[in-house]
Amino acid sequence: MPKNGHAASIGIKETKEIGERVRFLRKKAGLTIKELADIINVSYNTMGYIELGAKEGKPHFIKLRDQVNICKFFNISSDYLLFNLSSLNKERSLKQSELILQENSQLKKEIGNHKQKIEFLQDHIKTLKQFKDIK
Length: 135
Known about the structure:
Layout: H1 12-28, H2 33-40, H3 44-52, E1 54-55, E2 58-59, H4 64-74, H5 78-83, H6 88-134
Antiparallel strand pairs: 1-2
Helix pairs in contact: 1-3, 2-3
């Protein structure tokens, strides 16, 4: 708490910074405002106010329920959302991203192997059909 014993006030500057983080995360995820609004169960307009951090020139405060839904969806801490504090979630996200990339690479290899097997089988079937036609 500040020295005067009162909680720190949150103004339009802070709500705009929160909105910028939400916009960054949404764009990074490749989502539209409408898509994210549907995911966290708010209206398109509310999502717009969240990203702007303001409504009619005044700070727009995000409801706790919406903060929780945003944090859960993006796997971020409320510390990051509200105060831009990196926590263990950043490390966790990086590790998860690395695992996803490794899994994706492995799946691409497996798909390539399956394509080769399918092509082999298709050629084999074609050969068998030709052999059948000869007899």
